[in-house]
Amino acid sequence: MRRALIAAVASLSLGLGVAGLAAPAMAAGPVPGTQFGMHVPTISQGSDPVIPYGAIRLWDSGISWGQIQKSKGEFWWTGMDQAIGNANKQGVQILYVLGSTPTWAATNKKQGTYPNKGAASMPDLAAWKTWVSAVVARYSDSIESYQIWNEANLSTFWQGTPKQMAQLTQAAAQIIRAGDPTAKIVAASSTVRLQSAYKKFFPAYMKELKKLGWPVDVISAHTYPAGNGGPAERAVNIIRVKADMVKAGVPSSKPFWDTEINYGIKGPGSTPGQTISGPDAASDVARTYLDNILLGVDRAYWYFWGPANSLLGITMQSGTTGAIGYQNVSSWLKNAYYTCTPGAVNVCQLGDYAKPEVVVWSAKSSGTFKVPVNATLQCDALGTCSNVSAGATVTIGNMPLWFGTSPKNIANQSGS
After folding, report:
1. What angle separates helix 278-295 from helix 321-333, to the nearest 10 degrees?
2. In 3-state terms, what secondary structure has residue 217?
3. What is the mean pLDDT of residues 66-95?
4. Domain count, the chain
5. Which of 409, 400, 191 is closest to 284 using CA atoms?
6. Fewer beta carbons within 10 Å, N or C terminal of the chain?
């Protein structure tokens, strides 16, 4: 299956600081289905999220470089073939993470243990080029985008230098563009919440990419907040990354993708994690994707679709409130043109005055909102709907509310 090219959501202007935005967002859209990304670790085994999603990131799926090419010259493609085939059947765009280093190709086999010894080491450059060439030759008809590395600011995944990562990026980009000129090259991701590691790697990596003439199409990061944080704290991380992109001189044409997001993950340091369920899970997921269009995140991949896990705060499985929130916010935003205005109550106008569709939510506290003219229905991210009267004043909290004239594929816990 060859993907169709879909226009990216336009980035929105940054505020003057991390506290918020300085000006209303410009009108943009339509919101592509690829905005709603997902990780499905068992995709090679046929797992299907059974909710609408538009893009998949193949990571933690048992098909990293070191798991496919366990020795020089020998490739085990079975798992990758199955993952690619199942993603194609589900009609989603595929992002494949090219790193990490196999033990045999590592220049220092003591650097890194996941998913194999030496995985965080700078690979032999010739081996890297051979690997990238093999992936592109086999899967260029299916892979939409290639990410160079995962969380390269963390020693768990990378112990080389920012300059070496830029060299790998350039080498991969040359091969990919020769084999598939329409594919997107996505920069290695950085995790933002570990600020010391982020500050050490991300600006330096951007500097090296600039020296090489920006051999990437997309900038990426992981905007997980601290374990006790939520969407408001994630927004702070987004604004930091966007500000650092401006400082680094990243061309404004380069989109920004958040290639992993969830909440409640323990850390940094002694910060406790949390389990998030019920209305809070639906609210946090919906706000995540609403914040994307408000703050200029062109794509976000939820981590991950699977059973409850002690690592993650929000479980994404069929029938969980997190999945319901994901499905509802997708139904609100997919293919919509929008004008968003940030404030005490954030407002995204999705329709027109004849047939209004508006989504509103508060980032930290609460505020009031006047029901739009002609709107007759109010639905929250859990799929709970009620009738409203145009012109009435309603209180808005952090649970996003959609106002319109008829429900749009509303999902709720009853399964309707």
Report:
1. 30
2. coil
3. 97
4. 2
5. 400
6. C
DSSP-derived secondary structure for 109-141: TTS--SSSTTTTSPBPHHHHHHHHHHHHHHHTT
d(C-alpha 342, C-alpha 147), whole Å: 31
Residue 157 token pair: 């995944």
Instruction: Please count the CA atoms within 13 angstroms of the CA of 235 that sit on its side-chain side.
Output: 24
Same domain, 166 and 83: yes
Judged by DSSP in three states, 318 sits in coil
d(Cα 330, Cα 35) in Å, to the nearest integer? 9
Cα–Cα distance, 81 to 354 (Å, whole number):
48
Kindly state whether residues 187 and 97 are assigned to the same domain: yes
Cα–Cα distances (Å) from 138 to 81, 233, 277, in that order, read 9, 41, 41
Q: What is the pLDDT of residues 99-146, one digit of tens each?
A: 999 999 999 999 999 999 999 999 999 999 999 999 999 999 999 999
CATH of the domain at 201: 3.20.20.80
Residue 203 to residue 69: CA distance in whole angstroms: 32
Same domain membership, residue 96 and residue 69: yes
Strands (E), 43-179: 55-58, 93-97, 143-147
Structural domain span for residue 80: 33-336
- Report residue 341 as tokens: 């205005």
Residue 240 tokens, joined: 């930091």
Inside any domain, residue 5: no
| Amino acid at position 380, single letter | D
Give Cβ neighbours of residue 284 (< 8 Å, ≥ 6 apart): 230, 231, 263, 276, 314, 322, 325
C-beta neighbour count of 4 within 10 angstroms? 8
Domain-terminating residue out of 295, 317, 336: 336
> pTM of the predicted model, to two decimals?
0.93
The first and second tokens of residue 364, run together, are 């930290």
Question: What is the maximum span of the chain, computed from C-alpha positions, in angstroms?
Answer: 69
- Rounded to a whole number of angstroms, the CA Rg of the chain reads 21
In tens, the pLDDT along 215-260 reads: 999 999 999 999 999 999 999 999 999 999 999 999 999 999 999 9
Which SS3 state, helix, strand or coil, does residue 311 take?
coil
